[in-house]
Amino acid sequence: MAVLKTILYLLVFPGILFLFVYSTFVEWFDRKVYARLQNRMGPTHTGKSGLLQPIADFVKLMAKEDVVPDAADRKLFTALPVVGLAVVLTAGLLLPVWNIDLAAASPVSFPGDVIVLLYMLSLPTLILFLAGWSSTNAFSIIGGTRVLTMLFGYEVPLFLAVLSPAVLAGSWRLAEIAAFYRAHPLLILVNLLGFGVALIAVQAKLERTPFDIPHAETEIVGGTFTEYSGKKLAFFRLMSDVELVVAAGLLATVFLGGCGSGLITAFVQFILQTLFIVFLLSELRAVTGRIRVDQVVSFAWKWLAPLAVLQLLIVILIKGFVL
Amino acid sequence: MSFQIPIGPQHPALKEPISIRLTVEGEVIKDADLRLGYNHRGVEKLAEEKSWIQNIYLCERICGICSHSHATCFVQGAERLLEIVPPRRGVYLRYLVSELERVHSHLLWLGVAGHEAGFDTFFMYTWRDREVVMDLLEMISGNRVHYAINTLGGVRRDIDETLRQKILDGLAVLKARSEYYFKIGAAEPTFVARLAGVGRLTKQQAMDLCATGPTAKASGLALDVRKNDPHDFYDEVEFVVPTADTCDVLGRTVVRIKELFESYKICEQILQKLPDGPVAVKAPRKAKPGEVVSRYEAPRGENIHYIVANGTEKPERLKVRAPTLGNYAATIEMLRHGYIADVPLIFAAIDPCICCAERAVDLLDARTGEERTLRFSDLRRMANDRARTLSPKRNVEWPF
Question: What is the ipTM of this complex?
């Protein structure tokens, strides 16, 4: 039974199948919200209201010719999309969405999993940098260096902002943090500042406007992805979609109190919370323009990092004097 | 580490082929160079083969955005050579279309600027509202892009009272939307952060490098043919030439939005003062020998047509100086010491129309860099020889 449960967990929910279907749905949702905010229709043709468009895009890319540049390191160039997708799918397994039994810890829920999840979310950034670098294309190299430059800006504020709710909850385990906030819903309000910082940092991590600098089309063509095509590009795009789901799931767990314990309630809550966060991220994408990479770093250290530290300070004070 | 980055001839930021060579160190541009000649169409040669009336429609096709500008510039000159004076109603309608075209061009530019700055929502909004003015132009002339309203001695179509009212209604809508864009263009933090201080061009540099249009106006030079040389119409309406002293892309944005308001003002005055009478007079087929320089303030800057007549039905020579050409020298200066991220914005800020400005092709030997002059038939033979004898070359080194 336990084996069957593990297999279900790995392959169906919240494993590969669910993450694939849900991430394509989230991409559709993001595109639709973005389009409606711009007075456009967004996807309409494939499936009902264009629901199948991201899957159609994926299938189309899988069927396209796959070109590897002569000068590129063939093995690295090919391995990166697969590894990247594997990393974010693994990160998805760490989200406490179903088999949360606080007493009998399952292998994917352990003290410190919030740190592991954050590190797993950092890996795609490194993979994108390597992808840009190994493409040996001037545009890709610039894209790759921009990926890393941005990382120095948003990573610290993101860690500080995500860890302060954990400090308040007194646990490094995602399931316990969520359980703590479900028990004390009012304390969610304490972390609002951190939530804002984390939203912006996640937007930067996911390289969406105003932080879509590494693949700024009008400046450096496809940026890191310039030389990628066919299956490899499809994998990278799926990686970004899954990363969006995982990042939204992380924020939902840490800042919004996560999901309940039943299968259906957990499922519904997970969907609603992640869609809410994706909606906020789409809104942010629609109302801003792209900024420059030096502006990202200075913005992150002038505003995001101090605000994240302030949030940590608030949490420590509340923990010391109120609780 | 400094290396060269090719922007173009094919690049997503460029709607038309041009090659910008950048020498960069990290994200900072150390040097820039422009190479033209990818879109040469031989318009001037073709003009010598066509009659005066046919040339109006040829000139209209020099540019797809400011089509009316080139046609009007040519017609102004041709009318002087043919010694005809268009009736007042015709003149008023001609410049009504001119100002509406300026509105459509500037709204288009705002969208492009938004897109280059990664602010696609702004792009979608401005282009949606641009439809209003496109529809007005279609109602007046029957066409959305190449209006073909000019003819020698006036315009081809009249407007009636219902259409006059519709234009006024459309202008009211556009005015309200433009005020909103003015707020966004000058206040949206990420947008302004991208535009301010980018692509600096001082007043002295703008003067030395012959910048024109909004590029010059944003550097504090009130250069506008409509004011400096108000040919046969612009002294009858009231408007000001907006300038900015920030000398950057933000200034160019602000100038363009302010020009929108001036154009609305001019359109309203035209519609109020519109005289009665015919819209065109009959033009002779032949022009007496002579030459004329015609100037016109296109949305992008000063447009100059130099026309020579030799007493036949066709012009002897037509020389077109499109405003984009006047701004290239300033562009290189603006690109220097900027960031790669700002290249599309700086280049887009002159509102480049590359095919309008292409007048010549340089033939360079790819290996030696030697410049040559060839007959077209020789060039074709060389190309055929090469295609037969040479295997395709891999890893061609760029730039040649």
Answer: 0.83
